[in-house]
Design brief:
Layout: H1 35-41, E1 61-62, E2 76-77, E3 86-93, H2 97-100, E4 107-110, E5 119-125, E6 146-150, E7 156-160, E8 171-175, H3 179-182, E9 188-192, E10 195-199, E11 217-219, E12 222-228, E13 231-237, E14 242-243, E15 250-258, E16 270-273, E17 275-279, E18 282-286, E19 292-297
Antiparallel strand pairs: 1-2, 1-3, 3-5, 4-5, 6-7, 8-10, 9-10, 11-14, 11-15, 12-13, 15-19, 16-19, 17-18
């Protein structure tokens, strides 16, 4: 039983190119002491401390894991130890992390106050989870990530984890014009910070996830034929009702969740689309994505 229902929305992002700078390279006109003067006037150099700029460099580790607790103050940690939660992959001008950090960055931190010059460090967790991976809900916004869009009073874009392979609100590409996005089927664009972010449907769903968990069982639904904007289809009356899989009334089992109806595959026998939004009194869009559940008949 299916009712082909879609949600329409759109969004946008900005891409800025800024050249990176090595945090450890001093200005060219900085006078350098001679080796002889250093040898006669200075004691042996002690090991670098976390407050020295030389300590914050690519390849070193910190005792945090991204995303870090707000109250946690990061410190350097030996990368060979279990306390080394994240590794510095790059240092960039402070504030330029979103456009200059590597694509697999799990999180960013600014160097401690008083450490000169101020920098943003790009971090990759030493072990899972990796929120910077595509679709995992964190790191740098890029193609394949999913978003929550709010457009009142201004457009805001919040990255979140994707539930399935289609979204919701999955970024399909960044575009310079609205037309470059909307000419593709089921693609929507929001203007945001002077550019466009091209996404799929479901970007305005507040809560993401299925109403019925995998392996849960359902009773046989009551249905009736009705006309919709897509033609005459079966419609479930009264919704689906959960039941113990051992009960005699158990009719079907949930074997998958998808955002696009034809993605339901074997062993599924049916696809069921839930909907609350209406158009001219008829259902016109899915509930929080993915709204389609795949059911195997028991």
């Amino acid at each position: 039983m299916s009712s082909k229902l879609w949600t329409v929305a759109a969004l946008v992002a900005v891409m800025v190119t800024v050249s990176s700078c090595d945090a450890d390279t001093p200005p060219k006109d900085t006078p350098q002491p001679s080796a002889a003067s250093c040898a006669t006037s200075l004691p042996p150099n002690p090991p670098p401390s976390p407050t020295q700029s030389t300590a914050w460099a690519a390849g070193l580790c910190l005792d945090v894991q991204m995303p870090k607790p707000d109250s946690q103050v990061p410190a350097l940690a030996d990368c060979a130890l279990a306390t080394a939660g994240a590794q510095i992959t790059k240092l960039v001008y402070q504030g330029n992390g979103p456009v200059e950090c590597p694509k697999d960055t799990d999180g960013m931190l600014d160097t401690p106050t008083g450490l000169e010059p101020p920098r943003t460090v790009c971090l990759r967790n030493r072990r899972a989870p990796h929120p910077g991976d595509v679709g995992k809900g964190g790191g740098i916004l890029r193609v394949g990530d999913c978003t929550l869009i709010e457009d009142e009073p201004v457009v805001s874009v919040e990255e979140r984890a994707c539930y399935d392979g289609h979204g919701p609100g999955r970024i399909r590409k960044f575009t310079r014009t609205k037309k470059a996005c909307t000419r593709k089927i089921w693609s929507y664009a929001y203007k945001w910070q002077g550019s466009y972010l091209c996404v799929g449907p479901g970007e305005d769903a507040k809560e993401v996830g299925p109403q019925y968990a995998l392996a849960s069982c359902l009773t046989a639904p009551k249905t009736k034929r009705r006309k919709t904007v897509f033609g005459t289809e079966n419609s479930i009356v009264g919704g689906l009702k959960k039941v113990s899989c051992k009960a005699k009334k158990a009719w079907g089992k949930v074997v998958g969740h998808v955002s696009i109806e034809f993605e339901c595959r074997r062993p599924a026998d049916y696809s069921v689309t839930s909907s609350t939004s209406t158009l001219y009194g008829l259902a016109s869009g899915p509930d929080p994505c993915p709204a389609i559940i795949c059911i195997r008949r028991l």
